[in-house]
Write a structure and sequence with these properties.
This protein is of the alpha/beta class. It has helices at residues 2-17, 43-58, 75-90, 107-115, 141-155, 177-196, 207-210, 217-233, 246-258, 276-284, 295-310, 343-348; strands at 35-40, 63-68, 95-98, 119-123, 135-139, 165-170, 198-199, 240-243, 268-269, 289-292, 319-322, 327-333, 336-339. It has 2 domains: 18-133 and 295-334, 3-Layer(aba) Sandwich (Rossmann fold), CATH 3.40.50.2300; 141-294 and 337-348, 3-Layer(aba) Sandwich (Rossmann fold). It contains 12 helices and 13 strands. Helix 5 (141-155) packs parallel to helix 6. Belongs to the bacterial solute-binding protein 2 family. It comes from Treponema bryantii.
Amino acid sequence: MKKLLILLFAGLLLVSCSDPTNTDNQKNSSGQIEVGIAMPNNVRWRRDGSDIKSKLEQAGYSVDVKYAEGQNYSQQQISNQISQINDLISNNVKVLVIAPVNGYSLTSVLAEAKSEGIKVISYDRLIMDSDAVSYSIGWNNEQVGQLQAEYLIEKLNLENREDDVTMEFFTGDETDINVQSYFYGAMEVLRDFLAKNIRVYSNDLLLSECATPEWKTEKAKERMERIISIYEEYNKTIDAVLCSNDSTAQGVTEALLAAGYTEDSFPLITGQDCDIDSVKNIIKGTQSMSVLKETSIMTSKTVDMVKAILSNTIVPVNKTVNNGEKNIPAFLCDAIYVDKDNWRTVLVDSGYYTEEELQL
């Protein structure tokens, strides 16, 4: 009888150890990590990485997420990410999802991934100069710049007016591969108006002149202060500032307020990301709009891509993008914009922010 009880107990232990609800190993009983995720390290990227990991684990896949420590865009952060990707390759992952710190820095490490037969998904920021990239997931970033430019054209009535308007331009860090798409997407829309009746008194029209190191708010504020002094010399006011994102828009807003611009005389200012401080500025009237990229859409599409790769089924794509090495099948998500007319519907009624968070 005692031997029978021991055998029964041992059998129960075996059943409990093979419990299919153990999601890390649900699809891979050997315990192998199937999906490796490598991203920069800030609140936004941690949110994205955590969301992808959670959705994949719910589907039964084992996932390891790594965030590159270090100051944004620094060589230390780049080196940390390369080291983390090497670790994931050594762990024999089947798929890598990578948001690069620097889109030009991963050619060598991804050559190793390719040699190991690992599929690579470039996430949000396109990985450049590598034939190891299998798929890309991101936003239609030219559309972001186009939305911002079209908004200014409509609000300034540029199609119908003959008099001049003044405008300035702020974009992000030059090492961010998306910056080119934001900037040139906007400039292409504004091209004819720049030749006709948009005046840029700073004469800053090249990407290098309009770039903001590390997207830092204080850097944008410092440059805006210099631009304001130019307008004061010409006894001119600023009608609009096209900012590629909210951190630069916030720096522009701070400089304008300090210079005496009021809500009644405030220039039109664009942005991107719907950062909570910028949404508050939209409500107050010191920022005009912000392009919203609902990242849950992109994380869900990423999960669909990974699942298709691992199940050897058709991977969902709708575009191709070129990374300087080859054309890559891609899924590009569309964005929308938020302004004073729709912020409550888009952001509060949807649950993106609560009224308490916006201090309404």
